[in-house]
Protein: Nucleotide exchange factor GrpE
Amino acid sequence: MENREAEEDMPLPSFPPEPRQKAAYSTDAPVSGPRVAETAVEPDHAEAVPESNPVNGNPNAVAMDIQKSIDSLGKAMDQLQALFSQRLQYDQTKETVIDRQHQELKALREGIKNDLLRPILYDIAAELDDIRQMKIGLGDQPGSQLAAEQLTNVEDVLKDILNKNDVEQVSSQPGEPFQGKWQRMVKPVDTDDPNKHKTIAQSLAPGYRRGQESVFKERVIVYRLLPSSHRQHQPGDLDSNSSIGTDSAVPPETQKSEPRA
Structure:
């Protein structure tokens, strides 16, 4: 009895708990049907081995790789700069060509416009000159006043057409120099004054110009210097028939012979 009580008082040996194995299936989901025995999956004890890098531990190799990358980047930048320069030069050339073609087209268009307008404007200016002469020729005839008023109305309409096309009427004043580009000499007037040579004596009919182009030349009378042999002698000048200093100027029949001694 006492031995049994002593055995019961002896402590039992303790054993470490066995590791719990992970189930191969999810225990959360409800299982229908007969219970399947749990099978443990052995863990993968193979550790990942880091790949070996031949550069590790070699600073020279690292520097060489960096230098190669820098060189490649520099070459790419140089190529990009060359392409950018070519593109910029192409754009500048293209812009220059476009501007030049635009100017040429504008000049051609203006030239065609002027070629078409020139004969029309000339005819209008010539008609104005005819109207001016008709008004002068009316005089004091019966009905001349009414005819002059009608001609003036037509003249105003034609002048308005010229003004709309930038044509201006010009008239010279006496004493201004003669310019063949804008004026046409109807007749010359002789003068012995050298200062009046090739100057306007009188304006007979106005002219018309458009910018730097003459539409209808002004008709003028111009002074012309006489040749020296036709000029009148000024007071004090010697005449070619003067008898001073010569006897040949006296006619033979008027010369008297001296009496003989």
In short: The chain is about 40% helix and 15% strand. Residues 36-41, 233-261 have pLDDT under 50 and may be disordered. Strands lie at 168-170, 183-191, 200-205, 207-210, 213-216, 218-225. Helices lie at 2-9, 59-138, 144-164.
